[in-house]
Specification:
Shape: globular
Number of strands: 2
Largest sheet: 2 strands, antiparallel
Structural class: mainly alpha
Strand content: under 5%
Strand order of the largest sheet: 1-2
Radius of gyration: 18 Å
Distance between the termini: 32 Å
Number of helices: 7
Length: 193
């Protein structure tokens, strides 16, 4: 990617991050929260590693392992990657907005937690993860190097572990209503997964 495209991509992710931070200010109080140490090793650390792979501040002796292209450079691939990144982040923002005060960055149940099935939650049970995975895929395509796909794989495994715990807790909280929701709506990819 060239400098101007790097700047555009970083700006898009920064705007998303600022929205994420701002919208978290009035979430409901938690009543059940996953342990911080487990959370760090299962989600935070893998996400940091994935972001570092995308930003690429790793030592030069690792370059040969990660800087090989998995997709030939092409302006249309870069534009498609940018479109996927934007679409994924917008989908995640829509889901975050619809979730409202029930949202949290960590696995937790809120006081007066509600089961949300509207908006993007009618397409997938975890649309924030779907959107972020799409954004990581798009950014990986823009980079075009294996490190982008490695970052996507790390995030996907981390999100899969996180959503399984969330689903267990939501099943405990909402019982048959959540089981019914799981039968009607796929976790991450509409009609597939």
């Amino acid at each position: 990617m060239d400098f101007s495209l790097d700047l555009v991509t970083e700006s898009i992710w920064l705007v998303w991050l600022l929205y994420w931070w701002w919208s978290a200010r009035d979430a409901k109080r938690p009543v059940r929260v996953e342990q911080p140490l487990a959370r760090f090793f299962k989600y935070s650390l893998p996400l940091m590693v994935a972001v570092l792979l995308l930003v690429r501040p790793f030592p030069s002796w690792l370059d040969g392992m990660f800087d090989q292209r998995f997709i030939p450079f092409s302006p249309w691939v870069v534009r498609a990657g940018l479109a996927l990144t934007c679409a994924g982040l917008l989908f995640a923002c829509w889901a975050r907005h619809v979730l409202g005060r029930n949202w949290s960055a960590v696995v937790q149940l809120k006081q007066d937690h509600e089961l949300i099935e509207a908006g993007p939650y009618g397409y997938v049970r975890h649309p924030i993860y779907t959107g972020l995975l799409l954004a990581f895929l798009g950014t990986g395509m823009m980079i075009g190097e294996w490190r982008g796909l490695l970052a996507l794989a790390i995030v996907a495994v981390s999100f899969w572990r996180k959503l399984r715990l969330e689903e267990r807790w939501l099943g405990d909280q909402f019982g048959a209503a959540y089981v019914d929701y799981m039968q009607r709506v796929k976790a991450l990819v509409p009609g597939v997964l």
